[in-house]
Amino acid sequence: MPEPVNRITGIAAPLPRANVDTDAIIPKAHLLTIHRSGLGAGLFSEWRFDDDGRERPDSVLNQVPWREAKILLAGENFGCGSSREHAVWSLMDFGIRCVIAPSFASIFHENCQKNGLAAVTLDEAVLAHLVAVVQATPAATMTVDIEACRVTAPDGREFPFTMDAARRQALLEGLDEIGASLRHDAAMAAFEARDRAQRPWIHALPTA
């Protein structure tokens, strides 16, 4: 079950590239595990490290203070490409709790929801403003309020965003699809009991 997400306050790293695909987010060499921990080391690894494993100083997530970022300011169509869930896991393992972009690839967006990574959509003009502000004041923090659907920039300006009500509630309560289904456990049990009484042959176990 994902952790509940309400307010995220932290440093925001600017990465306003369009069409960043999941192979860039977590290259295939790091897909040798089904565990969610440890994947932060592979996040954007081909951009962050050279062939000898040394950090590239021009990569934004290698720079102070953005290497401590909790929020990523991304470009349009973020998370396109393959459906690998590892992309979301690597972002979260690195410490990113929210990605803000003009648009997201649909499967990546779904994977964010399932894992409790907030994916917030703001238009390009607002993103451009936020990127300019964090580049001017790198250590200043930004707040993303999921309950209020509002981003507060480091300069104090506030920007509302919209989010599907069910998705927003799932983030606030830390629910994935299974967790959301289990909220109806009593109703499902009552249905099964009625169905057993009305159609017992459907529920009969096969005999050897």
TrEMBL record:
EC category name: lyase
UniProt entry tagged with the keyword Lyase: yes
Subunit-structure text: Heterodimer of LeuC and LeuD.
Enzymatic reactions: (2R,3S)-3-isopropylmalate = (2S)-2-isopropylmalate
Protein name: 3-isopropylmalate dehydratase small subunit
BP GO annotations: L-leucine biosynthetic process
Gene name of the encoded protein: leuD
UniProt pathway: Amino-acid biosynthesis; L-leucine biosynthesis; L-leucine from 3-methyl-2-oxobutanoate: step 2/4
Entries under SUPFAM superfamilies matching the protein: LeuD/IlvD-like (SSF52016)
Start and end residues of each Aconitase A/isopropylmalate dehydratase small subunit swivel domain: 6-124
Keyword line: Amino-acid biosynthesis, Branched-chain amino acid biosynthesis, Leucine biosynthesis, Lyase, Plasmid
GO cellular component: 3-isopropylmalate dehydratase complex
CDD domains in the record: IPMI_Swivel
